[in-house]
UniProtKB/TrEMBL annotation, chains A, B:
One of its GO terms (molecular function) is metal ion binding. Residues 186-325 form the MoaB/Mog domain. It holds the Pfam family MoeA_N. Its cofactor is Mg(2+). It comes from Desulfofervidus auxilii. This is Molybdopterin molybdenumtransferase. The lineage of its organism: Bacteria, Pseudomonadati, Thermodesulfobacteriota, Candidatus Desulfofervidia, Candidatus Desulfofervidales. GO terms for biological process: Mo-molybdopterin cofactor biosynthetic process. Catalyzes the insertion of molybdate into adenylated molybdopterin with the concomitant release of AMP. InterPro entries: MoaB/Mog-like_dom_sf, MoaB/Mog_dom, MoeA-like, MoeA_C_domain_IV, MoeA_C_domain_IV_sf, MoeA_linker/N, MoeA_linker/N_sf. NCBIfam families: Glp_gephyrin, molyb_syn. Its EC number is 2.10.1.1. Pathway: Cofactor biosynthesis; molybdopterin biosynthesis. One of its GO terms (cellular component) is cytosol. Belongs to the MoeA family.
Length: 411, 411
């Protein structure tokens, strides 16, 4: 057995370890399946968008020069020579003194360089309009390359695709798109006290809360979860299941049995693999201190606290970002957490030298949002069920003051 | 043809119309599929959780009374009578002067009422420990009903399930859970200028951006999208497709062809159905004014602007919430938008009497987040691709001031 490298890390040191792990592979998928997936190619406009000059208003296409000086008092008259059909190129050519009827989205006829809104015109007879308002060239017109110009970078590799991004890919005719695969994440629950959720617990036993919670968390994080089931406190069983999980997935989560023996097993199992390295054992956050990250070959094994609340918070703070990182995402910093601002309802002391994650309930009173702490032991899940927010108390802070404005991570 | 009821609504009046529509049906699904779904039953604890007294620390179970007065200077001695096996009930009974070895999560033996952490003990010999610290009864113990008590309401119908909720359902042995079905949403794209995304547009034609964008948006909103394809400017075709969509789905979205004729068609098609009612035509937001909501039988038909940026904003502001509403969700108010605070980079004027949705890019500079407007016509999609936020300018505001702190909706 190799000598393990033990050390407790600060949260920022944990993030610095992510680049030790390779990204997942790429795959090509149909555009309609691509929302929420991470782009694995740069997208450059292969043509101008929209590709032709379009009207942005219903009205008349004309030469802007004809309208210079037009006003309510001295309207100018134009001869209507026809109408543009939607989706078609017209043969009509607009000359001085002429106009062509046009609808929003239609292609400008040759010779026209602006569109006057119907509201600023008056029908004199079937073939003649009055125009009350001067137009600048290109007014109410989208230029042929105004949305995207040919050759322009539209979206970069590493970007998680939003609905509007799907829209621009559709506009460019990308019916298939190259994305990163979703990281596959094996979930192992350990402990002699853990039983399947379909069974009735005897005194001393609890149902397998962690597997199902982690399954949901992995999906939330953009990974594909894979339940490996419950492993009792047996070193060889854990080795076997862990080897199988490593072969078949990108990340392995071992949610620690709470027994003392079990915790040693996790370390022993990790060390039993060739090319294994424990990157840290212990991180300065609360709850969640007894977290482990190991590298076995190119794969990551996370050892999670058995206490469900601790496991969830470790997942949100580190593992979700880890899955996004190896899943190719490169803009995670901004949108990782959804936050709101609120005022603390009470004073909350904290220990310096670790990040505390306080569970809170957001309550609105006369338009003011208050954060009320939900107290409870980290072995209880009710604190997180009753909470709808987390407040991070920084490493170097002594706590939070009553009425202080804090950033609340929505959960 | 019935006389249509036309009127422009304010955004808040639009939300008041939602209860005119029935909720979707319910279904029972496996727990692992339930994340993000809306609960359609109240969940009451059918047993105490965890169901037995558990240690929250590694150490020794004992009678707290034995430790009263203990200190570093005058430790008390206890006789170790054995160890609790994880997941098992022990036969051991703790009497005065005795202690039992216990690990986090294990069941307290009879007679014990507290757990001393290993750190506050010292091994005297194999069967004896010194305890340095007094304990209160129940210290380092989770009571049998401390997580949830039998009969307690755990989660309410109408709640969208988060990972921690999945956890508590697992703890209660709910392997299946009753949820609302995901609303099915048919998407119809109309207009003579629209072509399938796999085709090469001729001048005057554009690819079907709206169908794909709406498909992604419906998924983001928790609905099941269904692409009905492109309908050319033909009244009978649109009637046929709309009837089919109404028969098979809960909501129909008609993304307006931009031609004048097409817009009339949408209203005419709606009015051609028996039991149809136009609830509004026009809403005081920008972009997005020419939005339609109609009720046909019990189903909703939304007419969306053809301009893609307008359609996306109308979706986020109204239709996403509508899908969540008929999908049974009842806590949508708080988490509907994910927001951050930033300072405006420039002054932005606005028209009173309508809600303006300004596209912005969030830029961080020395720890300060700035919102920079992304200007552009609503027929362009690049504004929303380059933006990562929206700033709402209220109905009664004249605009935003430079350096003003604004709430930015993350997109």
């Amino acid at each position: 057995m190799k000598k393990p490298f033990f050390s407790t890390k600060s949260p920022s040191e944990v993030f610095e370890l992510f680049p030790h792990f390779p990204l997942v592979d790429k795959e090509k998928i149909p555009l309609e399946e691509a929302k929420g997936r991470v782009l694995a190619e740069d997208i450059t406009a292969n043509e101008n968008l929209p590709g032709f000059e379009r009207a942005t208003m219903d009205g008349y296409a004309l030469k802007a020069e004809d309208t210079f000086g037009a006003s309510e008092a001295s309207p100018i008259w134009l001869n209507i020579i026809g109408e543009v059909k939607m989706g078609k190129v017209t043969d009509l050519v607009v000359k001085r003194g002429e106009a062509v009827k046009i609808a929003t989205g239609a292609m400008l006829p040759q010779g026209a360089n602006a569109v006057i809104m119907v509201e600023y015109t008056h029908m004199v007879d079937e073939n003649t309009i009055e125009v009350f308002k001067p137009l600048a060239p290109l007014e109410n017109v989208i230029r042929a390359d105004e949305d995207f110009a040919k050759g322009e970078l539209v979206l970069s590799s590493g970007h998680r695709l939003r609905p509007q991004d799907i829209g621009v890919l559709a506009a460019l005719g990308k019916a298939h798109v190259q994305v990163f695969k979703q990281p596959s994440v094996a979930i192992i629950s350990t402990g002699d006290e853990i039983i399947p959720i379909t069974e009735k617990p005897q005194p001393g036993q609890v149902r397998d809360v962690n597997s199902y919670t982690l399954y949901a968390l992995v999906r939330e994080g953009g990974g594909i979860p894979w339940l490996m089931g419950i492993v009792k406190d047996d070193l060889n069983d854990l080795k076997k299941v862990c080897k199988y999980a490593l072969d078949k997935s990108d990340v392995v989560l071992i949610s620690g049995g709470s027994s003392i023996g079990m915790r040693d097993f996790t370390l022993e199992v990790i060390n039993s693999f060739p090319e294994s390295q424990i990157l840290f054992h212990g991180v300065a956050i609360s709850p969640g201190k007894p977290t482990i990250l190991a590298k076995i070959g190119k794969k990551a094994v996370w050892g999670l606290p058995g206490q469900v609340t601790s496991a969830i918070i470790v997942f949100w703070v580190f593992i979700k970002k880890f899955i996004q990182w190896i899943g190719g995402e490169r803009e995670a910093h901004l949108k990782t957490f959804n936050t709101m601002h609120a005022r603390m309802r009470v004073n909350v002391p904290s220990v310096q030298g670790r990040e505390d994650y306080l569970r809170v309930k957001l309550v609105e009173e006369n338009g003011q949002l208050w954060a009320e702490p939900i107290w409870g032991k980290s072995g209880l899940i009710n604190t997180l069920v009753k909470a709808n927010g987390l407040v991070k108390i920084d490493l170097n802070t002594e706590g939070l003051d009553k009425e202080e404005i804090v950033e609340v991570i929505l959960i």
